[in-house]
Structures are given as C-alpha cells and as structure tokens.
Specification:
Structural class: alpha/beta
CATH class: Alpha Beta
Oligomer: single chain
Shape: globular
Helix content: 25-40%
Low-confidence stretches: none
CATH architecture: 3-Layer(aba) Sandwich
Strand order of the largest sheet: 6-7-8-3-9-10
Mean pLDDT: 86
Number of strands: 10
Radius of gyration: 17 Å
Number of helices: 9
Distance between the termini: 31 Å
Length: 230
C-alpha cells in the first residue's frame, strides 16, 4: 500500500526527519510514536506532500509518488487529518463534510449516510457552525471530513490530543468500527497514548531524533520506557 524509504524532510534548511522509513500494508492500522518534537508530524506531512522530501523514496501501491502534489494524493485515495484538526469554523458541520467529498474529485453533492452512522452526533449538529463545536466534536468532524472522500489510506495526526477521556473512548470505538467494516482501508496514525495505540494498532514504529529507531508488531515495556519516556 504505502512505503517510504529514507525520507529526509524538514523546513527550509532545517532537516527534521533523516530516516523516514516505514510501511503500511493494506488493511493495517500502523501507529507512529515518539516523544514530542522528534519529527512524527513532519514525516506525516512529507508523506501527504504538504512538505516536499529532499531525499528518499515514497511509493503508493508500488508507484512512486514523491513528486505528486497533496491534491493528487487526495485524488488517489489519501485522507488526512492534521494535528489541530483545521476544520472551517465559519462553515456548518454539513458544509465541512461536503468539502471532504470534493477532495477526491467526486461530483457527489450529499454527505453519505454512513458518515453519520459513524458519527451520529454530527448528524444532530449538521447545521451548527464548526467553530461552535467542542474540541472532541471538532475532532470527530475532522475525521468524518477525511472519511467522506472514501479514502484508501487515512492519515491521523494525534487524534486524541487535548480530548476529554470519554471522547477519546468514542474515537477509539470509531477507529475500531472503521477497521472492522472497511477492511481495505489502511490507517497511519500518530499517537502518544500507549494504551490507545495497543488497543487499535497492528504494527508500531517509534521515532527518536528524526529517525525510526524501533518497529514491530508489539510494544514491549522496555521500549516504551526507554524510547517514549513512559
């Protein structure tokens, strides 16, 4: 599905990620972890095309996409929920979801009902402005907007950051529900909570100082203590 090899990504002359090598297989939930400031979000932006890698390779379904623009990646099936959500606060919930539909070039003009099946609260609030929602509701809206385009690969940057515990549980349930119902959908998520990651992920990568320093199908106690400071 997705494979990056030795990606180097940064801002201007400042290199943040020096060895961004990971793989997300079809139907997998892969969690990218690490302390704050080690380059996780920068790597994800490089994968989405928001930042252009200066070195390395990036393949999607076996084809190089290193030169593709973010819009092209969206049209090919990438869904992206950035850190901070970036919903449109002056638009209604429904209008935000319709923008998600446009990202993959579809001509559909109505929000798919299955989006509201995942997020029933959004249906009740569809005429409210996005800026009037709570942080947890905005996160649900951001995920729903990305899903509206029916992506093959969903990129989630810290979906539980700053969210109250009951909404974290809801988001966990939503991801597990998506995983069970949309078996062809792959998910790459950045997450700080070890408990959350262990419940939903199939595979793990840990970053430190801009490099992938661990990968595996389980999080061992010694790895979380040493590499995550937990």
């Amino acid at each position: 599905m997705l494979k990056s090899t030795n990606l180097e990504v940064g801002y201007g002359e400042s290199v943040v990620v020096r060895n961004g090598s990971l793989e997300v297989k079809k139907g997998q939930v892969v969690c990218l972890m690490g302390r704050n400031g080690v380059g996780k979000s920068t790597l994800m932006k490089g994968i989405m095309g928001v930042l252009k890698p200066t070195q390395g390779h990036l393949y999607y379904n076996g084809e190089s996409i290193i030169e593709s623009l973010p819009t092209k990646r969206a049209h090919r099936g990438f869904g992206y929920v950035p850190q901070g959500r970036e919903i449109f606060g002056t638009l209604t919930v429904q209008e935000n979801l319709l923008i998600g539909l446009e990202s993959n070039g579809t001509k559909q003009k109505t929000v798919p009902e299955w989006i509201y099946d995942y997020f029933p609260d959004l249906k009740e609030m569809k005429n409210r402005k996005g800026g009037d929602l709570s942080g947890g509701q905005q996160q649900q809206l951001a995920i729903g907007r990305a899903l509206a385009a029916n992506p093959n690969l969903l990129l989630l940057d810290e979906p539980t950051e700053g969210i109250q515990p009951n909404i974290v549980a809801d988001i966990q349930d939503i991801i597990e529900n998506i995983k069970s119902k949309q078996k062809d959908l792959s998910i790459l998520l950045i997450e700080q909570s070890v408990d959350f990651a262990r419940r939903i992920a199939d595979y793990y990568y840990i970053m430190d100082n801009g490099k992938i320093v661990y990968e595996g199908g389980e999080l061992k106690e010694k790895d979380t203590q040493h590499l995550l400071g937990i």
